[in-house]
Amino acid sequence: MGRRRASADDGSSAYLQAGEPLAAIDGSGTMYPLSDALGSVRGLTDAYGDLTGTADHDVFGEVRASSGASGIFGFTGEQYDAESGFTYLRARYLSPGLSPQLNGAL
């Protein structure tokens, strides 16, 4: 049995996932995430393999430094919600600056 592949569309971009983010497609092209051993997205490349953005997280998920392009996937490969400022963990939201986890929907 292979890994399950899923795609999502937020209205402006489409995302391909298979347990981890694989690609983000929008009007400007396709970006491919580069993940570390924890699954955190540390870099983004374009279709040619050129590095277009980087990010560095502390142990609690707070962004320490970033440059260039960014995507919605970040710490541990989970989606970052720019509107709330939290990382969505499917059942909970994570806010590294407030408390480890916030239960329920916001």
Overview of this structure, please?
- The protein is mainly β.
- The chain has a domain at 6-79.
- It has no helices and 11 strands.
- It has a 7-stranded antiparallel β-sheet, with no helix packed on it.
- The model has no long low-confidence stretch (mean pLDDT 82).
Keyword list:
seven-stranded antiparallel sheet; 11 strands; mainly beta
Task: Give the topology.
Layout: E1 6-9, E2 14-17, E3 21-26, E4 29-35, E5 41-45, E6 51-57, E7 63-68, E8 79-81, E9 86-88, E10 92-95, E11 99-103
Antiparallel strand pairs: 1-2, 2-3, 3-4, 4-5, 5-6, 6-7, 8-9, 9-10, 10-11
Compact overview of the structure:
This protein has a domain at 6-79.
Strand runs, count: 11
How are helices and strands ordered from N to C?
EEEEEEEEEEE
* DSSP strand content: over 45%
3D shape: globular
Separation, N- and C-terminal Cα atoms? 36 Å
Spatial extent as radius of gyration: 14 Å
Biggest beta sheet attributes:
7 strands, antiparallel
Indicate the percent of residues in helices.
under 10%
Structural class: mainly beta
The strand line-up of the biggest sheet is 1-2-3-4-5-6-7
- Total helical elements: 0
Parts with pLDDT < 50 across at least 5 consecutive residues: none
The chain-level mean pLDDT equals 82
